[in-house]
Amino acid sequence: MPSIDIILPVYNVFPYLTKCLDSICRQTFKDFELVIIDDCGQDSSISLCQDILKSTDINFRIIRNPTNLGLSESRNVGIACSSSPYVLCLDSDDWVDVTMLETLYSAALSHNADIVSCKAKQYWEIDETYSEMFPTPSGIYTAHQYLELLFTEKTSSHVWLRLLKRELFNQIQFPRGVTFEDVLTLPLLIKNSNRIVQLPNTLYFYRQRNSKTSITGSKPTNLKGFILCLGKIEGEFTYSPEQSFLFRRFAYKVLFFIAFNVSHYSNNFQESKRDLTSIRRYLKFYLLSSDIRKTNKDIKTNSLLYLLLLKVNPRLIFIAHKLVFYKRFR
Known about the structure:
By secondary structure, the protein is α/β, with parallel strands linked by helices. It has 2 domains: about 5-210, Alpha-Beta Complex (Spore Coat Polysaccharide Biosynthesis Protein SpsA, Chain A); about 225-330. The protein is about 45% helix and about 20% strand. It has helices at about 15-25, 45-55, 70-80, 100-110, 145-150, 180-190, 225-235, 240-265, 270-285, 290-295, 305-310, 315-330; strands at about 5-10, 30-40, 60-65, 85-90, 95, 115-125, 130-135, 140, 160-165, 195-210. Strands 1, 2, 3, 4, 5, 6, 7, 8, 9 and 10 form a 10-stranded mixed sheet that branches. Helix 1 (about 15-25) links the parallel strand 1 and strand 2. Helix 1 (about 15-25) packs parallel to helix 2 (about 45-55), helix 7 runs parallel beside helix 9 and helix 8 packs antiparallel against helix 9 (about 270-285). The protein starts with a strand and ends with a helix.
């Protein structure tokens, strides 16, 4: 049994796959299995995987989904088929440092950690530049301490930054068919951990295929499902008033991000109305006046104002986005 299973969902990433696989094959730590999930793409990505990997000594297998299931369910399939003590979920259009596995696994053993996290750089494809992502303070944390870092945006919600004990997924899965699945999963993984290690090493390189003025590159889908999941997991963080507030503030910032994204990728208000209305329903119930007073002290952008506009009328945030964003960036 290998020490680590790398879970790699593959779907229409042919132009980026060689760099990703090369960074995996060149790892200084070899005691791993690469579990590729074929998510039924239309290009030659899986053939490329086979061509590259058959000439290496990498232990790998390819699992084909019965149909296109999406990133979340593909990860779930891979984790369900894994047997290693640790798993690492990578995105197939990104790449990693050749020492990533060795560094993360060594820290996991040294500190008996359930989660080991590194830092990342974002690669902007449009002009071939790099930028830092989330300069999280390095250290050893309890679940409570690390959740505070997450909820105050001092660390990323991305799962691909982290080596995870597979047993954490015994009761947790990535939610199916929703957008921003990491946001809905990582808080629960952290909550069920005993010890989390944050390393200072930059070991992951996240490819941003869009311009620096875009958000995720496409309009989010199934926001009703996302908001339903968000409301459900909030119940996991009500064991203290402070923790409950931190989670709600985290949720507000995530919803601002999504509302901004929806407005950005909609040509007119009618295209965004349904999604913005779904977010508004959540805010009308959860955006508390006490939260407004507390949150207003440390929000760096106009996100709280945007959310208040959205709470009043979805059309207002759409208009505000088009006026403010395009004036600032265009």
